[in-house]
Amino acid sequence: MKGNAGLGEIALPYAEALMSVAQSRNLTEEFGEDIRALLNLLSSSDELQKFLNNPFIQAEDRKAVLNRILGEGANTYFRNFLMLLVDRRRIMLLEEICRQYLALLRQIKQTVLAEVVSAVPLSEAQASAVKQKVIAMTNAREVELETRIDPDIIGGVIIKVGSQVIDASLRGQLRRLSLRLTSA
Hints:
184 residues; alpha+beta; Peroxidase, domain 1; 2 domains; 4-stranded mixed sheet; 62% helix
């Protein structure tokens, strides 16, 4: 099996095709919302992931489950795209295709993704302050926060934007202090 980079190379053309359809129909944001909801569902349901990735499940069964998940109000183009993935036996790439689509959407909207790790959930004011800091760092129009809780950092936050990492956690400060004391 190929690594994530290999999956990204395979998934990118599908994400670009979906973006092309979305742009031609002026549905980029609507597709983005549908994809975020689908990603949340996939990340919270191991059962669904296993079902979609199981090579012994018939295509019609996968389509039926996807149709039930999407419901009646789903966009026809998005539904057809998912059915195409099932027909082409590429449904196991769904999660990566969704991630690639969201990356393309962020690129178009000049939005950056900031991964924030904190010891406790961020308040609205703290999240806003983090967004302002990231906008100042990157000159982006908007910032999309992806937050994660890790009590091991004790306090503060770790912000990752692309390859830049800002470690303002208590654990990071203690580690830097320890390094300075041992090198002195």
